[in-house]
Amino acid sequence: MLEALSPQRRRLVLGVLAVVALLVLALVVTLVVRAVTRDGPVPQDRPGPVLLVPGYGGRTASLDPLAAVLRSEGRAVTVVDLVGDGTGDLDAQADHLADVADGVLRTSGAPSVDVVGYSAGGVVVRLWVRDHGGAAQARRVLTLGSPQHGTSVAALGAEVAGGCPTACEQLLPDSPLLRRLNAGDETPSGPEWATVRSSADQVVTPTASAALDGALNVVVQDNCPDATTSHYELPADPVVAATLRSTLGAGPMASPGAAC
Predict the structure, then answer these.
(1) What pTM was estimated for this model as a whole?
(2) Which of 106-120, 134-148, 205-219, 246-260 is the least confident region?
(3) What is the arrangement of strands in the sheet containing 50-53, beginning at the earlier edge strand?
(4) DSSP states of 102-123 as a string?
(5) Is the pLDDT assigned to residue 23 strictly greater than 50?
(6) Which of 5, 40, 79, 145 has the fewest beta carbons closer than 10 A?
(7) Of the CATH numbers 3.40.190.170, 3.30.360.10, 3.40.50.1820, 3.40.120.10, which one belongs to the domain with range 47-247?
(8) Which pLDDT does position 12 carry in this prediction?
């Protein structure tokens, strides 16, 4: 069939076929990487690299205190850059997180990753675990001030503005995405789960929205009663730093204890 084409058209067709073959090969490699990690539960006593997932808007600098604590403990840390401006579809962000996890596992040779999701990033992490292969790749998941059941602040913003970006709409209480995510088991098998929230959080309201059934749920004020930690101060809070150490180590997950 190619013999009937002119040399120029033949080269064009062969070039297109080569590109298609490379794309198929890349897809196969990705699927193989994900399949290899599905052989069984990841070892809980072998902490691997840590992925940090930022919140709504994707501001990675907000995660600097977390990265500093983890690196001081000798952990390799990757801060995930969200797709676009970080206000788009949370499912698309979860798919991007899957690609980042694949790359980190491939280059590090580690059997698993630990993942910390801050604010809306915690919802992204749960979507990744549930729908994008993360259940076979994550050893531990820790979410910080995450609107797992929505926040009235998003509802108020949408009402006042007559609508809000996709991620904001998805974080409305009882949104279709959150109904699907919270149906059944909120902490599906695979990783071990922990959450941290502050009773002084005025962004994720009610603050109990950040808790998950089946997780180790830490409240800042249970450890430091006088703490006034806001939503934006969570990454630098000493209770959060202590929780990183007590949940992401080689031993079993544990509450951090007093860290004032």
Answers:
(1) 0.83
(2) 246-260
(3) 77-79, 50-53, 113-118, 138-144, 192-197, 216-219
(4) HHHHHHH--S-EEEEEETHHHH
(5) no
(6) 40
(7) 3.40.50.1820
(8) 54
